[in-house]
Amino acid sequence: MTPDDRAPNDLAPDDRAPDDLAPLTGPALLRGWVAPSRVVFGPIETNLGTGRALSDRHTAFYASRAAGGAGVIVTEIASVHESDWPYERAPLAASCAQRWAAVVAACRPYRSLVLAGLGHAGGQGVSAYHQRVLWAPSGVADVVTREVAYAVEQPEIDELVAGFAAAASLAVRAGCAGVELNAGQHSLLRQFLSGLTNRRSDGYGEDRGRLLREVLAAVRAAMGPVAVLGLRLCADELAPWGGITPADAAALVPSLAPLLDYLVPVRGCALSESATRPDGHTEPGFNRALCTGVRAALRGSGSAVPVVLQGSVVDPAMASSALVHRTAELVEMTRAQLADPRLVSLARAGLAERIRPATLSNQHSRVRGPENLVISDEGEPDTGYEARLPRPGGHLPAVSAPPRRVLVVGGGPAGLEAARVAALRGYRVRLVERADRLGGAARLAAALPGRTRFGLLLDWWERELARLRVDVRTGVQVGVGELDAAAGEGLRVLLCTGSRPAPPAFAVGSGVDVLPAAEFQRLLLGGGAAGLGRAVVHDPVGDWTGVGIAEQLAASGVDCALVTPDPVAGVQLSRTGDLADANARLQRAGVARELYTALCSAGDGAATLVDVHTGERRRIRCDVVVDCAQRLPDDTLWLARPHLARAGDCVAPRTVREAVLEGREWRWSL
Predict the structure, then answer these.
(1) Are residues 623 and 643 in the same domain?
(2) What's the whole-model pTM score?
(3) What is the mean pLDDT of residues 275-293?
(4) With helix as H, strand as E and coil as C, how does 152-170 read?
C-alpha cells in the first residue's frame, strides 16, 4: 500500500462489516486466544531474510498485514534442523528468536495472533547450500531434482522430533502465540505419510502417521498447554495410485485432533507442486470440497477442531460464504493480502469494492528459485518493501490548498496508478487515453487464458479514479501542442504512453498476414478469428502471451503451430509454476510446438523455420503469423519533450508491477 493509502481519513469511521462479510471480520477463538478476524495470512516464502534469520523486512511485512486486520499471521516456515536448507534465504528456527519477538511486538497493537511456521523440506530440499545429504523416509529420487536422499534411521528421527520441539519452545519463549507445523508441500512430515515416498518396512512404514503424531506430541509438551498448535496437512497428493488421498486424510485426522487447535487441509506433492499454489488457470477456492471432507471426518469423530479453508481464496464474499456454510472456521487469504494488506479493514468498514484484486499470476509471489526474487505483487509493488515505508498508521502531510494540477497521458497501469496516488495526495488530476477504454496492453493481456483477473485489477483502478474524482478522458489523442499548452497552464505532466510492436525480426513476403500480438488480440475480441487459416505463433519471448494466444487460436478451431527457440514452450512460465501445465494444455489442444526453432521468413503461404542447433531449414504451411516478439517503448512524445517525466512501458516494456511502481514513485516528485 502507498503511504497515502494509510491516511487516517481514508477509511469510513463505521467499524461494522456489512452482514454478508461479518462472519469473516468477526473474532475467532483458538485455545483461549482471540484473533481479531477469521482471516489467516499463511506461511508464504518471502526471500526477505538475512542469512538464515528473519529480518526487519519481515517485521514490516507482517506488521502491515496485522494493521490491515489479519486475525492470524503465520511466519515464513523455518527449518527445525540444520539438515534442512531448502532455499538460500530459508530461515533456520535456531536463528529466528530475536525476529520472532520483533514481529510479535510489531503486530501486538493490532491484536493479530502471530504463529511461527515450522517445517523440514526433507527430500524436496537442496543439498547445494549445506553440502550434506538430504533426509527422507526412503531412498527415493525426488521427481524434480532427481536427487536421492538419505533414508533416516532412528537417531535422525529422534533428532528431527527434538528439533520440532526445541523450535516450538523457542518460538513461544519469543512471544509467539504458538506454531503451525508443515505437513503439506515441501515437507518431510508429508513424505512420511505418503506411499510415494515412504517405502519403509519398520514401524514408521507400517504406520505412516506415526512420525507426525510423535512430532505433534513433542511440540505440545514443549510449548505447554496454553500455546496454539496448528497443522498444515496434505489431504490429497493428486496421485491416487500411491499417494495420500482424501480418504487417507479422513482416516488420519481423528487421531491427530486431540493434539491440534486448528487444521489447514492442502493438496499437492512433488509430482504436482503447481497445484499447491496455482495461477489464474485454476478457479479460486479450489480446496472447498477437500476442506469439507476433512471437516466432516473431524466432526464425525466428535472433534470440534477448527478447519481453515486454503486454496486461492481471494474474494471476501467467497471467504465469508465458506464460514456461513460451515466449510471452515477460518479462511486463509494470503495472496489476497499480498495484493491489499488492508483487506480485512476495508471489508470491516463496508468498503469491499475498494479492495485491490489479486491477479493470481504468481509472477512475483513465487520466489523459491535461483533468482532469489523478493516477494511482491503486480498491483501492490510495495509488498515486500514495507521496511522502506512509513510505519503502518503513518500518513503524509496534507497538500496545501489550492491543489495543484496534474496531467497524466496514457491510461495503462502506470498512468492509472500515477493518477490514483496523485489524487490521493490532493492534486487535481486529468488522465487522457487515446483508446476508447482504459488499461492499455494490460486490457488485452486480460483476455488471455488464465489472465482474466488482470481485468479485475483494471476495473478496480477505474472505480478508484471515479471515487477520487479524477477527470478521465478516453479517445483523446495528445500531441506536442497539447503538452505545451498544459505546461503553459502550470500542469505537471507525466507520460505513460506505453509500448508499440517491434518490426518483425523475420522477412515478410506476400501471401501471409503478419499481426502483432496486441493487434491479434483486438481482432480476436472482435470475433474475427474465424477463417484465419493455418496460423503460426512466433514466440521468441516465452512468456504467457504466445502460449495464451496459441490456446485461443486452437479453441477457435484454428490450426496452429507455436514456434520458439527454447527447449519448451513458454519457458518463462517456470517462474509462475505453469510451465508443465501450459505444455499439457497445448498438447491437449492440438497445438504443434516447434521447439529449438526460429522463424526466418513468411510468405507465399508458408513459413520458413530453422533449427537453432543444426541450421536445417524447412517450410510449413502458414496463412497468418501472430508475432509475440518483444515490444518497444512508444516514446514519440517523450523524444519531442524529453524534459517531461515518464513511467511504465514508454521507458522500457516490462511487467505490470514495474509500470505500477514507476507510476507510484512519481508522486515523490510532485
Answers:
(1) no
(2) 0.94
(3) 96
(4) CCHHHHHHHHHHHHHHHHH
